[in-house]
């Protein structure tokens, strides 16, 4: 644990970055206890010291200047004003997850609408908070379709650390899965040879290959039936699930090609799937949910592929 002004070296496998409240410090009761949860989940934890300024937007700039990175999952967390700081910085840092405790959003003096948060966003607020109205958390959760947990507690929620720990633990574990999906190499088998795509990366050559070799007009998706909910299944179960998925596609008249997702770190086994050629809107998402998947890969020609979180 560190109140670092620089990033840990070497680059950590997974990193949790806390932002403390307006007048608290980087290692108060709540952050210290939650850091232990994160470390038990395999995360390095840093908590920058923002006390040199009370300007929330300068604190946002400080976090953006720090530019935290990890080899795997990056999660931002913040309490009170720190919730505002982490929520505002998430747009530029693109973390895998965001954890907000009684975030001072829509607050006098810093009431800007945060950028769209990551799909893995968890908000916890106290019903008895007399510093930041619970309405702020309700508004943010409604606007951004974020998961919200309301607790019987005050602004600090120091008396509800077990509940905070449970929410954080779940988020951190799912964020590791999200990072694995995000960093995977997706290789599509075509009659003319393999085509590799990566999340967030697009180039003209890959676009031409996809359009020509896969006969794609406008969009594509990658879906698997293997390892439901990110839990490793046996080879026989995965093969049976993939056969069912492919049968569904053939019956629906959807064109598809075999694909495989490869973990560059070699931690996760190769996972077979299918690339859907020009699926109708919502079809790939519905298929992913039916086969109990956490994510699918979705892309429109001309735009970078993105993970579509389904849970």
Textual characterization of the structure:
With about 300 residues, the protein is of the alpha/beta class. Helices cover about 35% and strands about 25% of the residues. The protein contains 8 helices and 13 strands. The protein has helices spanning about 30-40, 55-65, 80-95, 135-145, 160-185, 205-215, 235-250, 285-290, and strands at about 15-20, 45, 75-80, 95-100, 120-125, 145-150, 185-190, 195, 220-225, 255-260, 270-275, 295-300, 305-310. The strands form 2 sheets. A 7-stranded antiparallel β-sheet has the order 8-7-10-11-9-12-13, with helices on both faces. The chain has a 6-stranded parallel β-sheet with strand order 2-1-3-4-5-6, sandwiched between helices. α2 (about 55-65) packs across α3. The chain is elongated, with a radius of gyration of 21 Å.
Radius of gyration over C-alpha positions, nearest whole angstrom:
21 Å
In DSSP terms (H or I, runs of 4 or more residues), the helix count works out at 8
Largest sheet: 7 strands, antiparallel
H/E element string? EHEHEHEEHEHEEHEHEEHEE
Percentage of residues in DSSP E strands? 15-25%
Query: Quick one: overall form?
Result: elongated
Instruction: Write down how many β-strands occur, each being a DSSP E stretch of 2 or more residues.
Output: 13
Largest sheet: spatial strand order: 8-7-10-11-9-12-13
Give the termini separation. Answer: 31 Å
Low-confidence segments:
none
**Proportion of helical residues:** 25-40%
- By helix and strand content, what is the structural category? alpha/beta
